[in-house]
C-alpha cells in the first residue's frame, strides 16, 4: 500500500523503512522532522513548507518552455508571473521571490493589497500583471508602480477601467503602465473551476468591446502602451483539449488586433490553470497531460497561427499558481482517537445468561476463521441491527447493548485482519460498512477548505508504519463541532489506515499538496486558525527548521474578531473573583490557568491520557 505516492507525489517523496521520506539531500523522514519540532512542546497540526519544492516547480516551468521554444524555433519570449491569490503567506512568497530571481519570475496581483505586496517584493526586471476589477485608486497604484520603475501591465476587465487609465494618465507624471485587454473567449475550461472562461464568464471584453477599446487607446495616443491580451479559462485545467481550443481563439484575436494596427501588441497571457495531480488512485486521475506537453502545445499553436496570419510570434506569459505552490506544503496532523478504540474484550461484561443473539455474537467471535470470516461478519452486523431494535423495544438492557457493540467491533477487527490479503473489490462493500472513524487534530475548514467547499480531494497517508498492511477503512473527523468536518470513506477512492492504540503510540497523517489556495481560503470556523508552520531547508548534511510560527493564541484570535481582550480578561477575572464555589487560594490558581489558556493556541492537546500529549 503506497497511497498512490507515485501518482501524485511528483517524485518529491518516497517510502523507505516504512516511512515517508523527502526525496532530496539527506532524505529525512517526515516523521523525524515532526518529532524534532514537537520536542519544543509544539502540539496540534503543523504545516511544513519545503522551499526546494517551490524551486523545482519554477525551474520545471522555465525549462519546459525553453525546450519547447528551441524545438519549434520560436522567436517570442517566455515570461511567467506568480498569482499572489494562490498563497500570500510571507514564508511562501519571500522564498518564491528569491528563488525566482534568476528567471525574472514576476508577480500577479488581483487586489490592492496584493498589488502593494507585488510592488514591495517583486524582483527587479521582473514583470507584474494586474487582473480583476479595479477602481481609480487601484489604477493609480498601478501608475505608482510604473513610476517606481516596475514593469507593470494593467489588464482591463471592462471599458470603464480603460477610461480611468486614460483619464489618470493625463493627470499624473508621464509614466503610464502597459495596458492589457482581457478577452472573453467562447472557449471555456473544464472541471470544477471552469467558470472563469466562456462567453458568460465574469471577466473580459467581447469582440465588440475589444474593437472599441483599441479605438479608445488609439484616440488617447496610448497605442505604444497596449502590449498584451489576456485570457484565463479556469484553474486546474484537467484536459488539454479546451486549452488548445482557447489558444486558437486567442491566437487569432491577437493576429487580428495586430493587423488592425495594434502596433505594440506583443504578448498573449494565458492566465493560470496548469493542473496538479491530486489523485491517489490511478482510476481517478485528475489531469491528462504533462507540463512539457502543455508547453509544446502552447508554443506550437501560437507559432502556427502567427505564421498563417503573417504576424510576429507573440511573447508568451503564463500565470500558473497552483502548479507552483501546491507541492511545497504538507499538513501533518496527529490522530487523537479511533472511534472503536474503546472496544476491547476487557470491557465486556458477560451475564450468566446472555440474550440468545448476544450469545450468538460470542460464538461468532470465538469460531471465526479465514474461511467463514465474511459470512460471520455479515451475520454479526445483522444481529446488531436486531439487538438495537430489541433495545428500543425494551427487551434487552444497556449492558446487553454495550456487549453487543463491543462484540461486533471485535468481530469486525478480527474479520478484517483475516481477509486483509483478499482482493480489494471482494471486500470493499464490507469495508464500507465497517469503517473506522479517526479523530484528527486539525480543522478541515481551516486547512482543506476546498474539500469542504467543492469536494476537491487531497492525498492523505500515514507518515509511518508503511511496511504494515493498513486494515481499517477510514473516515476522518476533524475537531470542529460541525459534522461537515469529515472526509468520509469512499469506495471509489478508498483510504485504509492502521489499527492503532493512540494511548501507546502516536499516529500522524500527512495531507499533501495543500500549498495552493488552502491556506488563505481557510476559515476560522469554531475559531481554529492557521496551524503552526515551519520551513524545512534540506541539504546533503542535514535539515534545518526555520521560520517557526506557532498557531495564533486564543487572545490573538479573539482580538482579530475585534474583541477587547482586556475586557474579556476583566470579565473572566471578575466572575472568578465573585464565585462562591472556590476559595481565595483556588481563585488565584484558576486565574493563572486562564492566563495560560488565553496565551495558548486553540488546537487540542490532550485526550484521555495526560501522558499522551498530541
Ligand atoms: N490568473 C488568473 C487571472 C486567475 O484568475 C487565476 C486563478 O483563478 C490564476 C491566474 C491562477 O490559476 P492557477 O492557480 O490555476 O494556475
UniProtKB/TrEMBL annotation:
Record keywords: Decarboxylase, Lyase, Magnesium, Metal-binding, Polyamine biosynthesis, Pyridoxal phosphate, Spermidine biosynthesis
Cofactor: Mg(2+); pyridoxal 5'-phosphate
A Pfam cross-reference name: Arg_decarb_HB
Domain of life of the source: Bacteria
InterPro entries the record matches: Ala_racemase/Decarboxylase_C, Arg_decarb_HB, Arg_decrbxlase, De-COase2_N, De-COase2_pyr-phos_BS, Orn/DAP/Arg_de-COase, PLP-binding_barrel
EC number, UniProt record: 4.1.1.19
EC top class named in words: lyase
Protein name (Swiss-Prot/TrEMBL): Arginine decarboxylase
Location of the active site: 481 (proton donor)
Positions carrying N6-(pyridoxal phosphate)lysine: 85
An example Gene Ontology molecular-function term: metal ion binding
Domain Arginine decarboxylase helical bundle: 352-423
A biological process from GO: putrescine biosynthetic process from arginine
Function: Catalyzes the biosynthesis of agmatine from arginine.
Residues covered by the Orn/DAP/Arg decarboxylase 2 N-terminal domain: 60-326
Family, per entry: Belongs to the Orn/Lys/Arg decarboxylase class-II family. SpeA subfamily.
